[in-house]
Queue: 2 jobs
Job 1
Amino acid sequence: MKEFNIVVTGIGGQGSLTLAMVIAEAAMKQGYDVKTTELHGLAQRGGTIPCHIRFGDKIYSPLVLEGEANLIIGLEPLEALRACYYGSKKHKTVFIIDTHRVLPLNVSVLGEKYPSIKEIEKDLKPFSSKVITLSASSIVYKETGDVLATNIYLLGYAVSKKLIPLKEKYILEGIEEITPKRYFETNKKIFELGMKYKS
Amino acid sequence: MQKILLDIPGQKIILMGNEAIVRGALEAGIGFSSTYPGTPASEIGDTFAEIAKDAGIYFEYSTNEKVALEAAAGAALSGVRSLVSFKQFGLNVASDSVMPLAYVGTRAGMVIVVADDPSCWSSAQSEQDSRFYARLAHLPMLEPCSAQECKDFVKIAFEISEKFEIPVFVRTTTRVSHARGIVKLGKIVKGKTKGKFVKDLKKFNNLPPNTMRMHEELLKKIDKIKDYSRKMKLNFVVNNVKSKFGIITSGVSFDYVMDSLTDMKLKIPILRLGMTYPLDNEIIKNFIRKLKSILVVEELEPIIENEVNSIVKEVNPKLKIYGKQNGYVPKSGEYTEEIIIDALEKITKKKYNLNLKAHRKEYQKIKIARRFPLMCPGCQHRATFYAVKTVMGNDTVFGGDIGCYTLGILLPLETQDFIFSMGASEGLIHGIKKMSNQKAVAFIGDSTFFHAGIPALINMVYNKSNSFVIILDNRITAMTGHQPNPGMGKTGMGEDTKALSIEEIVKACGVDDVKVVDPFNLKEIMDAVKELMNKEGVSVLISKRECQLLAYRKKIKQGIKVVKFEIDQTKCKQAGVCLYKLACPALYKENGRFYINKNICTGCGVCVQVCPNKAIRAMIK
């Protein structure tokens, strides 16, 4: 495979970085070259955290080129919309978005508009072949009493729907390698739940 | 065991560029490392902090970058291999000692890692290009483009350093420091961890007229290193095909160039420069000799481009150079593949299969609510800013400084009227107060105070300033990822040490009016501000409490229940003070009503104190 490009986006604390690292680990285990990049420091404090993951036979740039993403995982709907330019019809980009909204202060304080999920889906149309929205975080919350494993749930979903060309076995190994040992069983369960999601 | 200490040569693991730098140092037999944290370099120090004990080496967070550099130089002069790391502004601080160090040289290998931040993702001050320092100091500079090269180049840097008794720069940028990639491990080498400083005035005495002799010797060294770089193949040609057009590039730009050529189905020779100082003129001459045109791709300043320009006259005066000077690639901001494709489309007239301009037009049509970086939910700096602004008023000059509290510049707090460099709040406020009668206050964090705030405070006292300073003491260096500092009683290796009292230091600097308050008690802090703001002379308020993010995480980890807050909708009269004046990110407004997001509330209770209608209460369940 020449290359597969993923952008994972969300806000600080939602686990976009962990998700990126799990995918990268799995890609290496499956024999691919892999690069990722993320931002730290000032950019991290409550701001947007887009992580790029690229894998394939030989990868140079750690950044996904505009329009070249194969998959965009949005842990927050507005942030998924903000990452729209990484997607395109040409590359048949698929968006997977958790519908739980975290309102930025610019919406609460300055009255900037937070679009509805329907509007976001419409806006993303020109940049995708498919936009999938699901309320993963509420399922995860019901299951674990916390929303933290939403990233792993979405990964399970993506793997089962073959939206990411990595084997379940390697993803699970990646989860084991990257996430804290004490959460492995929970994460595994959430991953499998994500795989069973019926749309 | 930590992944980075795996001693299985040949094994492949994924490392961040910053981690790979540490691995490279371990494979080069390092014994000493120091740093002052600064993003995008922070994880170099953090990784050393994690592994130093197990690896049997010494590591420290120094009080500032100049001290860090001097300590590393001391180790290298004692025969122990050392590495010092910092971000670009850290090199500004350290530069005063870099210059004489270049003349004096080293004994064991010494590597200086400097991380630049094109696009200022994590840097508030400027978009400086640290490559100039290599030229200013006459020190060799290597520029890796990936995690694998971070490891390899650090090893090569140690080799060059030791061979020529000269410190060597390894310069990264954000997309090298903060990019992960597969790294093939080599063998970890146990280097010296104890040394001895052997006196040698012939080598170390840099008083004039020796200074000039040392300058001459340094220039000769640099010429030899140029020859050596050729031997080491640090600069090389990729895609050695017949062509009239070529590309010269370095650092992560090389990766963008490689991908652009693949995506545009072009085969063009590339000269990749791994050592950007001293530049190997010969390889550049050979590369450009038969070309009609070249594109120079480097982030930030046109340093390579200008040097190539000066070589051209001699070997190929008709060569057309595309670069920053004629606007084919930008002079500021980080590069991306889009930028290279754009330049290649203009030069080669070949089109990439996606019209990026049209694509851009399409997405720029969508208006997306902005989400700025913020101080965390429950951050005590917000409480301090709220209290100070309420008491002193909007017309106060708020001196800003470097740390999480820099974010106080944003709406609605707006309590950082300027931000210069570490410790600068005090110097500027002193000057402003000397020349005006305005109300003013300098805000400075604990780590920043230790770093560069003490001389400025002494200056205030010495020069009879009429200034008010607030030290935002959150008991840690928070912005860069919670590194210990001299106020905490812990070293970078996790050992107990003396915890320096900021209050005692302030008093020792000659300040008589000092008060310590808890920022979560708004009445207490407001009373103290009222008392100190109009005092004659220098007064200091220390707003002291452990970083709330850290305190909250600790509680969660220990299973301690955090009492969170909610808004009693029957009492809330939509005054909006909580959201519009305090603006904690846990607060939000939906359909005209105010709420607290319980998922992110950290239970600080400050919003309870600002509500005029007593509508905020602890959550019942």
Job 2
Amino acid sequence: MEKQLKVSAIKDGTVLDHIPSNQVFKVIDMLNLNKISTQITFGTNLDSKILGKKGIIKISNKFFADEEINRIVLVAPQAKINIIHDFEVVEKRILTVPHTIKGIVRCVNPNCITNHQKMDTLFYTIVKNNEIELKCHYCERITTQNNLKIISSNH
Amino acid sequence: MPNNLITIQEYSKEEILGALELASKFEKEPNRPILSDKVVASLFYEPSTRTKLSFESAAGRLGAKVIGFSDTTVTSETKGESLRDTIKIVTNYADLIVIRHPLDGSARFVAEIATVPVINAGDGTNQHPTQTLLDLYSILKTQGRLENLQITIVGDLKYGRTVHSLIHAMSHFSPSFIFVSPHELRLPQEYRDFLTSQAIPFKESSNLEEGIEGASILYMTRVQKERFSDPVEYEKVKESYRLTLPMLKGALPNMKILHPLPRVNEIEIAVDDSPHAYYFQQAENGIYVRMAIMASLLLKRVDF
């Protein structure tokens, strides 16, 4: 069996593994990876025992604060975060659901003030039947994982 | 007491009772110019004549000067000035801001920008907390208590924000509820779950007469045409939740009918003369409740 890495190893940095294939680009968006100047390699539709197909993102020389990385629990709850030093995994982090989500996600309610003013969205997270719901701090409506829209960091 | 009134859920049971007690003092003695050195900004981004007049009457009885507008066409909002910028300016002109705005969550946003207390006079379909307080005041005044009452709520239970806030606020006082609505407009799941979690008994029905028997309060709301995507559906249900005088035969002697107004046709005019009708006095109570909220947000203590 071929034992070659499909996405090459990094010396120092962070590896995000077990991302659902269809969420790779959302994760890139949520972590503002398009603004990073260090080397990033990623693969998607790779074979995975757990997910069937998975995505992986490797970011050289970048280490995330908990509050930053925990955002991706919204789209990739099973993601594994590996911290790499000198080609070795020195730390495995588990994602936890943050109490609040600031920015990143758009409120599902078209009549919400956050969709009409230049301002950050703010949500309180509610975990219900293994799904995360976001309650808008402003309009109090619930945005579910199914209708989650990421505010693209491109603008 | 919180620094703003944005949602009724942020007021504890004690704070609600405190506000109602102060309102009853203002009702006995309505002309108290204790805010004569204050300016109240009344910003109405959508027309709501009754709410606006009630707030301005309340401010007037407290001696405060009122500035503001009630029509977005006369503000620079239409020229692209953001709500944020308007509030940043107005917060320097006034000691208190009363805001009515068509967008959900706008009042919370305004409270975050303003450096003076903010009262939410209705933010889109979200919250209208002074309406809830005047509902509670009317219940307390007519029934002599808030605890252990049977309350029947009729009409648009799905979108009616006054209904949702009333349910939340009454949950402090061990009520039992009967909800009467067309199936399309039944109470949303999250509120039914909330009542279950608080062990508050409730029944759902589509028969108005069933809800009248045994009730202390019959809270009527209008079924709004704009809530229906299909106008045929509206035509089908609009007559079924209309209260008529003969329906009141089996009502408790002290049962009172409340309605947030404006009424369309859900209460026939003949009911107005019944001793059960209370909706016009209910509106009057709004002034005392709004006086109580303004005074307690602006003064550390209100003496009588």
